[in-house]
Amino acid sequence: MTAPQLAVLLAASACFASYGWGLVRFFRDPGGSRREIQLVKAATTLAVVAHVATMLFAFDFAAWRFWPAMALYAVSLALFWWAIAVNLRRPLSIAFSHDRPEHLVTEGPYAVVRNPLYVSYVLCWIAGMLATGQWPLGPTVVVLGWLYHRAALAEEAKFRDSPLAAAYAAYAARTGRYLPRWPRRAG
Length: 187
Prior knowledge:
Elements: H1 3-26, H2 34-57, H3 63-87, H4 116-132, H5 138-160, H6 165-174
Helix pairs in contact: 1-2, 1-3, 1-4, 2-4, 2-5, 3-4, 4-5
């Protein structure tokens, strides 16, 4: 195993372990769509296997891809743990749960984007594809990105139907779903 291959494998494993920790130890599960969360778990498991196998057996090193991929892994991890830190006192519900939002988080990474955890996950999948040079991993990015998007839309709908609807609408008007919004210039 080459040093870059090991570095990529360790970076990806740090992301995967963090996300697994979040699933088991952080997110609350008040009940919801079992089918959809099971689909996310199954797709994630298959993606992890595909990425690790590719890192082990089909790694194609190129410095121009390696360093940006490592940066994406670092940003992914930092964003994930920053979002967790902001929510430690009041853990979030697991994706596709049917509970009513009890609070709105607008600080930390949530001041930049409304869904920093989903952004974190997608950055990790993109990093794996980029690092290995194996574009057939693209479907992992697309499928999981689509599932995260569906979860984000479901969460937005929960806010629209809650006592926090007005606060969420104001928050959504100033904060991008996945990308930061540039400040608008007055007049």
